[in-house]
Amino acid sequence: MFLQGQTAITLDGKEFIGVGDLEAQAESVMQCVKMLPQDAGARVEDVCKIAAYVTEHSSRELLYPVIARHLGGMHVASTGLVVKGLVRPESDFEVDVFTVAS
To answer: Cβ(18)–Cβ(66) under 8 Å?
Structure first.
C-alpha cells in the first residue's frame, strides 16, 4: 500500500492540525499513518519506507523523533527532502509511506 501526500488534514477533511507547529502536524500525520493501513488490512509494522518532505532544513530535528516514536523503534528505509513549498501553504511537512503486508 502507498499513502501519498499525507498531511495534517484530518481524515474527514474538515480541519488542519497544527498550523505553525511542525510537531503537532507530524503527530497528526503519524496518527493517520497508523490508522490508514489498518483500514486496508495492514499494520504500522508493515511500513517499509517513508519519504518525508519539509519546507525548512531545520525542521528535520523536530520531525524525525516524532516519526521514530510512532514507528516504535522500527528502522525503515527513509528519504528526507527539503522542498520549496507544499500544496497547502500551512503545511510544514508531508509524508509518503510505503507498506508491504505479509
So the answer is: no
Q: Confirm if 25 and 7 have CB atoms less than 8 A apart.
A: yes
Kindly report the pTM of this predicted structure: 0.87
How many degrees, rounded to 5, is the angle at CA 15 between CA 61 and CA 39? 80
Rounded distance between C-alpha atoms, residue 39 and residue 42, angstroms: 7
Task: Indicate the pLDDT class of residue 16, thresholds 50, 70 and 90.
Answer: very high
Position with higher pLDDT, 84 vs 5: 84
pLDDT at 5: 86
- Extract the runs of DSSP E, i.e. beta strands, from 12-57: 47-54
Domains of the chain: 2-99 (3.30.1330.40)
Cα(65)–Cα(70) distance, rounded to whole angstroms? Answer: 9
CA distance 86 to 35: 23
Answer yes or no: is pLDDT of 17 > 70. yes
